[in-house]
Amino acid sequence: MEIKIVKQILEWNEDVSDAVKATLSEKKVCLVNVMGSPGAGKTSLITDIINRLRDTLRIGVIEGDIAGAIDADKIDKMGIPVVQLQTDGACHIEAMSIQHMLSFFDLENIDVLFVENIGNLVCPAEFNIGEDFRVAILSVPEGDDKVEKYPLMFATTDALVMNKYDMLPYFEFDDKRVEQNVLDLNGKAKVFRVSTKTGEGAAEFASWLSERIAVKIKS
Amino acid sequence: MEIKIVKQILEWNEDVSDAVKATLSEKKVCLVNVMGSPGAGKTSLITDIINRLRDTLRIGVIEGDIAGAIDADKIDKMGIPVVQLQTDGACHIEAMSIQHMLSFFDLENIDVLFVENIGNLVCPAEFNIGEDFRVAILSVPEGDDKVEKYPLMFATTDALVMNKYDMLPYFEFDDKRVEQNVLDLNGKAKVFRVSTKTGEGAAEFASWLSERIAVKIKS
After folding, report:
1. B176 Cβ contact list (under 8 Å, min separation 6)
2. Is A3 near chain B, with CB under 8 Å?
């Protein structure tokens, strides 16, 4: 019985996701869905990207959290348009929420909207939110078995950012195992080794990201 | 509409949770629900506890994973009865699954069953599984804002284990902030600072755990 109910919600979500895509295509806005565990570094990656790309792209952010507005406050202090979505207990963001929130942005003056999804390696991967592409973050302290344990997240992502890469000496983490696991699931995924703390690898990721965004907004 | 559906599932789950509790009370088996993010150290904490308590308690383990049996293999190699629950995509364990799985254990010869829930700070907290008490793990690399962001998990736990405590010098993590956040939500929670790698704090946690288990199995 439960499986049937979940399917109904997912089908409904797909329709709304398509509607969000259509709106954003018309406005030439690229939507990036950023996902990962609690504490993997989603906000740190987004703020790093803002600093690197804000001179060439007009950026907006939707911050998803179950409660509070800690991350939205950080983005707001950078002078970037941000809206906080509080899911009030829900473990993922649905397309319907994004559809409602688009009206809070001046889409004529936005090139890319980053959505920071709820910290969760499971449920967010099941729900399209109208995104052009997905970025999954896995941080070194989480361990190198996570792709095998949470396959859907990594099978559906366009890029994997291995974050906190500067912590590699302190944890048993075989980064080649992780890369191979991801490529086995998903040959198209691009893998990056990044530390948002030291800056290692971040320019390379930003460069890939801006190329992907350019494809959308110039189409 | 979605909220209504979730409530129906939760109510059904509560009935089954009560049935699991009744069965385990009759058999004098204590059920411990271990929760935390992917990579927080749930398996490491359980294997540490097995090593510390296996001479005085008869232990069994239910390993919950979306896919695979990596953790169950580790427990099996220790000679401990273990059953793998694969949720096949679901983000949490429900009481119905535990009810089915009890038949795989010789409950007359078990004092405590640990359930390692799916790595997720959100959904598992919403579902009682017949547990006597809950242990939530938060690891230092995840960051000190997680109690504010994922309140239900920490509001409903009996113990918080701050794991990877040996990593404190390498991360900005205010352990007193975390402790205060938890106590604000949940005055009855006991807070432990543990490193399953170095062993720091683990004996203290094991001692608390064995006292809690003894209350149940001698009742």
Report:
1. none
2. no
Q: Report yes or no: B143 at the A interface, CB cutoff 8 Å.
A: yes
Prediction pTM value: 0.86
Strands A159-163 and A190-193, how do they pair?
Answer: parallel
Nearest to B122 among A70, A120, A150 (CB): A120
A146–chain B Cβ distance below 8 A for any pair: yes
Question: What is the CATH code of the structural domain delimited by B2-217?
Answer: 3.40.50.300
pLDDT of residue B3: 31
Nearest CA-CA distance, residue A25 and chain B, Å = 28
Considering only alpha carbons, which residue of chain B is nearest residue A141? B141
Cα separation, B61 vs B180, in Å, equals 31
- Domain definitions of chain B by residue range: 2-217
Cα separation, B153 vs B151, whole angstroms: 6
Task: Read off the pLDDT of residues B120-142 as tens digits, 9 standing for 90 and up.
Answer: 999 999 999 999 999 999 999 99
User: How confident is the model over B51-76, as pLDDT tens digits?
Assistant: 999 999 999 999 998 888 899 999 99
Does the CB of A45 have a partner CB in chain B at under 8 Å? no
For residues A112 and A136, the answer to whether their CB atoms sit within 8 Å is: no
Closest by CA to B120, choosing from B91, B141, B96, B146, is B91
- Please report the ipTM that was assigned to this predicted complex: 0.79
Average pLDDT, integer, range B65-92: 90
